[in-house]
Amino acid sequence: MRPKPNRSQRGFTLIEVVIAVALFAMAAAVLSSTFVNALLARDRVQSNDIRDADIRAVRMQLLLEANREDAEDGDRYETLNNGEANWRAEIEPTEVVDLFQVFFEIEFSDPHGEQSPTYSEVLYLLRPTWSEPNERSDLLQEKKEALLDSRDFSRF
Protein backbone atom coordinates (compact mmCIF):
# COMPACT_ATOMS: atom_id res chain seq x y z
CA MET A 1 0.00 0.00 0.00
CA ARG A 2 1.15 3.46 -0.89
CA PRO A 3 1.62 6.11 1.70
CA LYS A 4 -0.92 8.87 1.58
CA PRO A 5 0.51 12.17 0.19
CA ASN A 6 0.82 14.92 2.72
CA ARG A 7 -1.30 17.90 1.75
CA SER A 8 1.22 20.40 3.14
CA GLN A 9 3.98 19.24 0.76
CA ARG A 10 2.35 20.35 -2.48
CA GLY A 11 4.60 21.63 -5.30
CA PHE A 12 4.21 22.94 -8.81
CA THR A 13 3.32 20.49 -11.50
CA LEU A 14 5.38 20.19 -14.63
CA ILE A 15 2.65 21.85 -16.72
CA GLU A 16 2.56 24.88 -14.39
CA VAL A 17 6.34 25.28 -14.62
CA VAL A 18 6.29 25.02 -18.45
CA ILE A 19 3.51 27.62 -18.69
CA ALA A 20 5.40 30.00 -16.38
CA VAL A 21 8.62 29.63 -18.44
CA ALA A 22 6.67 30.20 -21.68
CA LEU A 23 5.06 33.37 -20.29
CA PHE A 24 8.44 34.63 -19.11
CA ALA A 25 9.98 33.93 -22.54
CA MET A 26 7.19 35.84 -24.33
CA ALA A 27 7.55 38.82 -21.99
CA ALA A 28 11.33 38.82 -22.46
CA ALA A 29 10.93 38.74 -26.26
CA VAL A 30 8.50 41.69 -26.23
CA LEU A 31 10.73 43.73 -23.89
CA SER A 32 13.89 43.03 -25.88
CA SER A 33 12.12 43.95 -29.13
CA THR A 34 10.93 47.22 -27.60
CA PHE A 35 14.44 47.99 -26.38
CA VAL A 36 15.97 47.35 -29.82
CA ASN A 37 13.34 49.57 -31.48
CA ALA A 38 14.08 52.37 -29.01
CA LEU A 39 17.81 52.13 -29.76
CA LEU A 40 17.18 52.22 -33.52
CA ALA A 41 14.87 55.24 -33.18
CA ARG A 42 17.51 57.04 -31.10
CA ASP A 43 20.11 56.35 -33.78
CA ARG A 44 17.79 57.70 -36.52
CA VAL A 45 17.12 60.87 -34.54
CA GLN A 46 20.84 61.47 -34.05
CA SER A 47 21.45 60.85 -37.75
CA ASN A 48 18.69 63.31 -38.68
CA ASP A 49 20.12 65.93 -36.30
CA ILE A 50 23.54 65.57 -37.92
CA ARG A 51 22.05 65.95 -41.40
CA ASP A 52 19.94 68.94 -40.34
CA ALA A 53 23.03 70.68 -38.96
CA ASP A 54 24.83 70.22 -42.28
CA ILE A 55 21.78 71.43 -44.24
CA ARG A 56 21.62 74.57 -42.06
CA ALA A 57 25.31 75.23 -42.68
CA VAL A 58 24.90 74.90 -46.46
CA ARG A 59 21.73 77.03 -46.40
CA MET A 60 23.74 79.72 -44.61
CA GLN A 61 26.10 79.79 -47.59
CA LEU A 62 23.13 80.68 -49.81
CA LEU A 63 22.00 83.39 -47.40
CA LEU A 64 25.48 84.91 -47.32
CA GLU A 65 25.51 85.43 -51.10
CA ALA A 66 24.90 89.11 -51.79
CA ASN A 67 24.84 88.67 -55.56
CA ARG A 68 21.88 86.89 -57.18
CA GLU A 69 23.95 85.40 -60.02
CA ASP A 70 26.46 83.90 -57.57
CA ALA A 71 23.61 82.42 -55.57
CA GLU A 72 22.11 80.82 -58.67
CA ASP A 73 25.48 79.39 -59.70
CA GLY A 74 25.81 77.68 -56.34
CA ASP A 75 29.01 76.54 -54.74
CA ARG A 76 30.72 73.70 -52.88
CA TYR A 77 30.88 73.48 -49.12
CA GLU A 78 32.72 70.93 -46.99
CA THR A 79 30.30 69.70 -44.31
CA LEU A 80 31.27 68.14 -41.01
CA ASN A 81 29.48 64.81 -41.46
CA ASN A 82 28.14 64.38 -45.01
CA GLY A 83 31.22 65.03 -47.11
CA GLU A 84 31.24 67.76 -49.71
CA ALA A 85 27.94 69.48 -50.47
CA ASN A 86 27.28 70.87 -53.94
CA TRP A 87 24.43 73.36 -53.79
CA ARG A 88 22.56 75.37 -56.37
CA ALA A 89 19.51 77.60 -56.41
CA GLU A 90 16.88 78.73 -58.89
CA ILE A 91 15.67 82.19 -57.97
CA GLU A 92 12.44 83.71 -59.22
CA PRO A 93 10.97 87.08 -58.26
CA THR A 94 7.45 87.17 -56.82
CA GLU A 95 4.73 89.79 -56.99
CA VAL A 96 5.97 91.26 -53.72
CA VAL A 97 8.81 93.76 -53.97
CA ASP A 98 12.19 92.26 -53.00
CA LEU A 99 10.65 88.85 -52.19
CA PHE A 100 12.10 85.90 -54.09
CA GLN A 101 11.09 82.26 -54.37
CA VAL A 102 14.19 80.09 -54.17
CA PHE A 103 14.34 76.43 -55.21
CA PHE A 104 17.31 75.20 -53.21
CA GLU A 105 19.04 71.87 -53.89
CA ILE A 106 21.92 70.18 -52.10
CA GLU A 107 23.80 67.06 -53.16
CA PHE A 108 26.00 65.40 -50.54
CA SER A 109 29.02 63.38 -51.68
CA ASP A 110 29.08 61.09 -48.63
CA PRO A 111 25.67 61.05 -46.89
CA HIS A 112 25.65 59.94 -43.26
CA GLY A 113 23.96 56.59 -42.65
CA GLU A 114 21.31 55.44 -45.11
CA GLN A 115 20.06 58.91 -45.97
CA SER A 116 19.45 60.24 -49.45
CA PRO A 117 22.38 62.07 -51.06
CA THR A 118 20.06 64.85 -52.30
CA TYR A 119 17.98 67.42 -50.45
CA SER A 120 15.72 70.14 -51.83
CA GLU A 121 13.41 72.78 -50.44
CA VAL A 122 11.58 75.95 -51.46
CA LEU A 123 12.45 79.14 -49.61
CA TYR A 124 10.98 82.63 -49.72
CA LEU A 125 13.66 85.23 -49.14
CA LEU A 126 13.35 88.97 -48.73
CA ARG A 127 16.53 90.19 -50.43
CA PRO A 128 16.73 93.80 -51.67
CA THR A 129 20.28 93.18 -52.93
CA TRP A 130 18.97 90.62 -55.43
CA SER A 131 16.48 93.03 -57.03
CA GLU A 132 17.11 94.49 -60.44
CA PRO A 133 16.65 98.29 -60.22
CA ASN A 134 14.25 98.50 -63.18
CA GLU A 135 12.35 95.39 -62.05
CA ARG A 136 12.02 96.83 -58.56
CA SER A 137 10.81 100.23 -59.77
CA ASP A 138 8.27 98.57 -62.12
CA LEU A 139 6.87 96.49 -59.27
CA LEU A 140 6.69 99.52 -56.98
CA GLN A 141 4.89 101.53 -59.67
CA GLU A 142 2.38 98.71 -60.27
CA LYS A 143 1.66 98.44 -56.55
CA LYS A 144 1.27 102.21 -56.25
CA GLU A 145 -1.19 102.31 -59.15
CA ALA A 146 -3.16 99.37 -57.73
CA LEU A 147 -3.34 101.11 -54.36
CA LEU A 148 -4.54 104.37 -55.92
CA ASP A 149 -7.14 102.50 -57.98
CA SER A 150 -8.46 100.72 -54.91
CA ARG A 151 -9.05 103.98 -53.01
CA ASP A 152 -12.22 105.91 -53.56
CA PHE A 153 -11.28 109.60 -53.82
CA SER A 154 -14.74 110.63 -55.01
CA ARG A 155 -15.92 110.86 -51.39
CA PHE A 156 -13.75 113.90 -50.76
Question: Could you characterize the architecture of this molecule?
Answer:
By secondary structure, the protein is of the alpha+beta class. It has one domain. Helix content is 48%, strand content 21%. It has helices spanning 14-64, 68-73, 133-150, and strands at 75-78, 84-93, 99-108, 118-126. The protein has a four-stranded antiparallel β-sheet. A hairpin with a 5-residue loop joins strand 2 and strand 3. It is elongated, with a radius of gyration of 33 Å. The protein starts with 13 loop residues before the first helix and ends in a 6-residue tail after the last helix.
Question: How does the SSE layout of this entry go?
Answer:
Blueprint: H1 14-64, H2 68-73, E1 75-78, E2 84-93, E3 99-108, E4 118-126, H3 133-150
Antiparallel strand pairs: 1-2, 2-3, 3-4
